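Handoff note, outgoing to incoming analyst
You'll be picking up this chain. Sequence as last confirmed:
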Amino acid sequence: MTANPQILSELNDRSREVFRRVVEGYLGTGDPVGSRTLTRSMSEKVSAATIRNVMQDLEFLGLLEAPHISAGRIPTQSGLRMFVDGLLEAQLGDEDREKIEASLGASEDDVTAMMDRVGSALSGITQGASLVLAPKREAPIKHIEFVSLAADRALVVLVFADGHVENRVFTPPPGQTPSSMREAANLLNAIIEGRTISDLSNLMAEEVSARRQEIDALAHDLIEKGLAAWENEGERSERLIVRGRSNLLGEGADAASLERIRSLFDDLERKRDIADFLSLTEEGEGVRIFIGSENKLFSLSGSSLVVSPYMNADRKIVGAVGVIGPTRLNYGRIVPIVDYTAQLVGRMLSGPKR
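Most recent structure output, in case you need it:
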């Protein structure tokens, strides 16, 4: 049974407290919470029988479930969602704040290195797996070159005005020749000065159309595929940093759970469904929480994702940071950690460049 979001506001104080304490107990230990345990922690003195009746009502409403006969209760996925949306108390601790700030260090030109440190710090602090979606590089380009590696593989080399060099391997159209690659590069280099990859993508349609008679069809295809290595799948796959996989593969997990988690990370490492993760960063500010099957990318492993986008100086979302863990994550601690990390990354990316 799926819980109605309005149910929480309709619960009386006793039912709300029982629900909150069951969820908090489960998030803390991973074990079902029984009525006798709750009698020792309730704010009012009530019998175990009374608490059992309340728990049965909450089970009927779809907020709790009993994993075993005569066991305590654990929250359902709907119950976890209701707790996160309506009862979660999140506050960033001083120790976590200091660890996050120390991991980023001073502002620097090497954004990739900074993002790698952010990912390692997030996985270390939260004991989960971290995902960091690095920002696109928007520095002006100085030079572009296509290099043939094999009949079905080519390399795009970008030299940025600040001296940074990046390359991507892609599959060129059939029948490419060294001359067609030179022609494609010459066209791009003639219009590239002072422009970013985004600028180039916007200009290519009109430039190719205006000079169509000068460009051999193969060179045209090569240009389109070469730029796609940055703007589409190639760009996305290289921008995703995953750290802390071993945190989800520790001792105590059953074989089926381990296999589901391995499958999740195999998918990530093969860069499947990365578009789904990217889309999470395009739907507005603030931390978003996906529990279990709520997000297709993580439904197989039964994991939760806490993710927050970060912005550049123009208040444009350019990337995201997140943490994957079991559905019984300590949301009250993880949410502010992810939120603060995203804010800090945004401030550092927006800061003055030397």
